[in-house]
UniProtKB/TrEMBL annotation:
Domain RNA polymerase sigma factor 70 region 4 type per the UniProt entry, residue ranges: 100-152
UniProt entry tagged with the keyword Transcription: yes
Name of the featured protein: RNA polymerase sigma-70 factor, ECF subfamily
Species lineage: Bacteria, Pseudomonadati, Pseudomonadota, Alphaproteobacteria, Hyphomicrobiales
Native source organism of the sequence: Devosia lucknowensis
Transcription regulation recorded as keyword: yes
Length: 168
């Protein structure tokens, strides 16, 4: 049990990074990670140690996120007035504008493309691992990545950012 919990703890920063990229909300991301960890601990008997724990945790987190989105669609999204930016406030630097534009473009992607893009580019997972996490064939994952990258190029009016390219 200690080995499981130690390995679980090592995965927390990566889970937080992925959750924050998915939700774009620190509080919701932390809640999502906490729910993921609770579920993993409660169901650790289901984990088959054929490989690393991290992909299993990503699968749990991805499924929890999808379930949350379904629930949110049923109940609607409350508007956080504190999160509405001031229109007269300029960005502190051009790089910030580019990152904000890219983040907004990623947010407009269909969920399937967004998940594939974040697992492969942000988390650096191999195609096979990302496909297993999303429970899709590897070819489908590659198609989703291609469509996501193409959409990002169109939305931002630039070629794919170097940090979004996958080196495999």
């Amino acid at each position: 049990m200690v080995d499981f919990l130690d390995e679980l703890q090592e995965c927390v920063p990566a889970l937080r990074r992925y959750a924050r990229a998915l939700t774009r909300d620190v509080d919701r991301a932390d809640d999502l990670v906490q729910d993921c960890l609770e579920r993993a601990i409660a169901r650790r008997g289901l984990f088959q140690p054929r490989g690393p724990l991290r992909p299993w945790l990503y699968t749990i987190l991805t499924n929890l996120h999808r379930n949350g989105l379904r629930a949110q669609r049923r109940h609607g999204t409350p508007l956080d007035l504190d999160a509405v930016p001031e229109p007269a406030t300029p960005a502190p630097q051009p790089g910030h504008l580019a990152l904000a534009e890219l983040a907004r473009a990623i947010d407009t992607l269909p969920l399937e493309q967004k998940e594939a893009l974040l697992l492969v580019t942000l988390e650096g997972l191999a195609y096979a691992d990302a496909a297993r996490i999303l429970d899709i064939p590897q070819g489908t994952l590659m198609s989703r990545l291609g469509r996501a990258r193409s959409a990002l190029r169109t939305l931002t009016g630039t070629p794919a950012e170097p940090h979004l390219r996958t080196v495999k």
